[in-house]
Structure formats: structure tokens, C-alpha cells
């Protein structure tokens, strides 16, 4: 038996992959496959090979996810820059300036600065403000009411149904799109509160990454107008 074949068998029995053996001996993997296909491996060698394959798969997955993250970041920055320029086209519309400014003040923005969650979320207890923001999202982001989720934060869990009915009437968002949430507070804290919001606080949620970054870009555009 030729010496390189003997060495290949020894390396294989030690748990080396075809690629590793090929690199060490400078023998094509096709040749190794012919030499080694019938070589029985111990459980230890099999475990070694499987462990390496798993590690390589994980490493490739991590690298792939990193690349996706980088590409997503580049795309998000592009959307923001385009939206910042686009904002100038809407400056003459009071609803655009009002809606963008209100979101700048009260809306969720952390997704643009590192947080993984990248969705629109605007919360307020004022029905009129919620109406304004609904009109803003529908007109400028071309969002349909059926695409909007509503989350109600309310302290009195016995009043959830009334609160959903109230905000459904205000927003026109289908009841099936409401995420009913009740947050309890201690009796001591309850006694200290002068006023409990009967219908709670409404969160307008739009799970659309592109719309989120357009809105962030519009905020930058409005900043440049007034600063």
C-alpha cells in the first residue's frame, strides 16, 4: 500500500475530514473518497467529525447573519436619507409637520439607534392626538387600518372591553387587531393617583420596517427645516 494512502487512513481514523487530509497530503478529495469510503470509524472519531461540522455550520451562520445585518443597516440608512429629502415635498402640509413633530416627541425611535425592534409605535391617552396620528399614518405612509395593531395599556382590567370599544370607535381599527393589555398597580399607588385614565393609553403599532425608517428620515428632514 502506498505510504500516502496509509497516512490518509491514519488521519481519517483520528477524526480528520477529507479537506484536512487533502490539505495535509496534497491528495485530491476524490482520491481520498475512493481510499477511505469503506474505512470504519470509531465513535470518538465520528463525534470529532460531527463536532467540527457543527462548529463550521454555526460559524457560517454567524457570518451570514453579520452580512445580513450590515446589508440591512445600509438599506435602512438609504431609506432615511431618501426620506429626509422627500420631507421637503410635504412641508406645505400642516398635517405632515404636526404628525412628524408629534412622533419625534412621543413616538418610539430606539429602533433607529441599535434596538432590534424596528416598528412604528405611538402612544397617547388623548383621543384627539390619536386621531391626528391615525390620519397622518394613513395619508403619508399609505397605511390601511387593517394593517394597524392597537395595544391598550389600562390599570383597571375590568374595563378592558369598554376601552377597546372606545379606541375602536376613535381609530376605526378592527377589534381583532387589538392587543388587550392590563397593567396592575398596587393599592397604595392607586390611592395616591388623583386620576385613573378610564380608557387607558392607546398604542398605534405599525409593523413595517420601511415605514419606520421613512418616518425617522422625515424627522431628520423637519429638524433641518427649523434648526
List the helices and strands and how they pair.
Layout: H1 3-13, H2 18-25, H3 29-36, H4 43-86, H5 94-106, E1 120-124, H6 127-140, E2 149-154, H7 160-171, E3 178-182, H8 187-192, E4 201-206, H9 209-226
Parallel strand pairs: 2-3
Antiparallel strand pairs: 1-4, 2-4
Structure description:
The chain is α+β, with helices and mostly antiparallel strands. It folds into two domains: 66 residues, no CATH class; 140 residues, 60s Ribosomal Protein L30, Chain: A, CATH 3.30.1330. The chain is 59% helix and 10% strand. The chain contains nine helices and four strands, in the order H-H-H-H-H-E-H-E-H-E-H-E-H. It has a four-stranded mixed β-sheet. Helix 7 links the parallel strand 2 and strand 3. Helix 5 crosses helix 9. The termini are far apart. The mean pLDDT is 86.
Question: What's the short story on this structure?
Answer:
Helix content is 59%, strand content 10%. It has helices at 3-13, 18-25, 29-36, 43-86, 94-106, 127-140, 160-171, 187-192, 209-226; strands at 120-124, 149-154, 178-182, 201-206.
Amino acid at each position: 500500500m502506498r505510504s500516502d494512502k496509509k497516512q490518509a487512513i491514519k488521519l481519517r481514523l483520528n477524526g480528520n475530514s477529507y479537506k484536512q487530509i487533502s490539505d495535509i497530503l496534497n491528495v485530491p478529495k476524490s482520491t481520498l473518497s475512493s481510499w477511505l469510503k469503506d474505512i470504519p470509524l470509531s465513535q470518538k472519531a465520528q463525534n470529532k467529525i460531527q463536532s467540527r461540522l457543527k462548529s463550521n455550520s454555526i460559524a457560517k451562520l454567524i457570518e451570514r447573519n453579520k452580512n445580513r445585518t450590515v446589508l440591512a443597516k445600509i438599506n435602512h440608512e438609504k431609506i432615511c436619507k431618501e426620506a429626509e429629502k422627500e420631507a421637503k415635498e410635504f412641508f406645505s402640509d400642516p398635517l405632515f409637520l404636526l404628525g412628524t413633530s408629534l412622533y419625534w416627541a412621543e413616538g418610539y425611535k430606539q429602533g433607529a439607534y441599535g434596538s432590534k425592534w424596528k416598528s412604528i409605535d405611538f402612544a397617547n391617552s388623548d383621543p384627539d392626538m390619536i386621531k391626528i396620528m391615525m390620519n397622518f399614518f394613513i395619508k403619508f405612509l399609505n397605511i390601511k387600518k387593517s394593517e394597524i395593531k392597537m395595544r391598550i395599556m389600562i390599570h383597571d382590567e375590568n374595563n378592558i372591553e369598554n376601552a377597546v370599544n372606545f379606541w375602536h370607535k376613535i381609530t376605526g381599527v378592527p377589534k381583532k387587531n387589538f392587543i388587550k393589555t392590563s397593567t396592575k398597580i398596587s393599592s397604595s399607588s392607586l390611592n395616591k393617583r388623583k386620576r385613573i385614565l378610564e380608557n387607558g393609553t392607546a398604542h398605534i403599532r405599525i409593523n413595517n420596517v420601511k415605514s419606520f425608517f421613512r418616518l425617522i428620515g422625515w424627522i431628520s428632514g423637519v429638524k433641518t427645516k427649523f434648526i
